[in-house]
Write a structure and sequence with these properties.
InterPro entries: AB_hydrolase_fold (IPR029058). It is built from two helices and two strands. It is an alpha+beta fold. It has one domain.
Length: about 70
């Protein structure tokens, strides 16, 4: 599955969090989705040592998402 032809349809606020050594999705693909999205309100957080789902940074990841949703749902 790819996001080819879909990313430009993303117009809502976007938060992308990705572990760079992620074995399932290469960072280049994640960066492409981020870059090609039409959203004007987007954030990309790359974790240099992040495992899949960035479970080795659980607290920081939860805070990142909590802050994102708190800001967007005001």
């Amino acid at each position: 599955m790819t996001m080819e032809g879909y990313a430009q349809n993303i117009t809502c606020a976007l938060l992308v969090s990705h572990g760079i050594p992620g074995p399932l999705f290469r960072v280049e693909g994640v960066e492409k989705i981020y870059t090609e999205s039409a959203s004007t309100d987007k954030t990309l957080k790359l974790w240099k040592d992040g495992k899949h789902c960035v479970t080795n940074h659980a607290t920081e990841t939860i805070m990142l998402f909590a802050d994102f949703f708190t800001d967007k749902l005001k």
